[in-house]
Amino acid sequence: MTSLLPGTDQVPETTSPPLAVDARDIRRRFGEREILRGVDLQVRPGEFLALLGASGSGKTTLLKILGGLDREAQGQVRVPARVSIAFQEPRLLPWQRAWRNVAFGLRGPDVRARATEALREVGLAHLADQWPKTLSGGEAQRVALARALVRDPDLLLLDEPLAALDALTRLRMQRLIADLCARRGLTAILVTHDVDEAVTLADRAVVLREGALAHEIPVDLARPRDPSGPAFGTHRDQLLSWLGVQDPTTDLPEEKTP
């Protein structure tokens, strides 16, 4: 585990079960505006966590802090040594073929083999030599996912990577991400605005409001999950209610505060 925020105390060791992510009292200001106000977040190894909230609530800021991309925050963070991030935009280098985008920054004699294997995992080994401009939106996002996976992360951070995809491609990518995380035993944190996506993928969903974690709910549904099922709908309605989208119309599970 690695502390990411310089100048802070180490998180005390405890006798409780180990955590993949242990963030405590995370605070981040941009000028006069305080985006994060003492966030505490713990994630178990192998858990898939969905992080929801309105635009500007601090979701991406928190993800960047956990990924080591924002060193100005205050607080205590412990995460695994190997962390990968997939963003909303694929961010592929247009002058590099697909496999070289996956292998960007890697070193060693087996770089192409490793990149090709990562592309195989996302179903794109046959497009290893394609240029990014020839790829569809879904294919480009899968290349970006392969780039995250090739580094063998223990923690995968997903910042709305499916937001720009069409509905059918998005469903296929959801199934792919669920399968990859389960097969690899990855700990994952997904930032999303899509409540159905959160209920489909997550073991637990948390809602960030005004810079703090306001609500959480375990998503203890059998997989694969049926969006038309009553239990799925109950979780959906609860999250929408917390997000201020609608009033609850059914008996909802009791709120659990982090």
UniProtKB/TrEMBL annotation:
It comes from the Bacteria. GO terms for molecular function: ATP binding. This is ABC transporter ATP-binding protein. Residues 1-17 have a biased composition (Polar residues). Keywords: ATP-binding, Cell membrane, Membrane, Nucleotide-binding, Translocase, Transport. The keyword Manganese does not apply. Residues 1-20 are annotated as: Disordered.
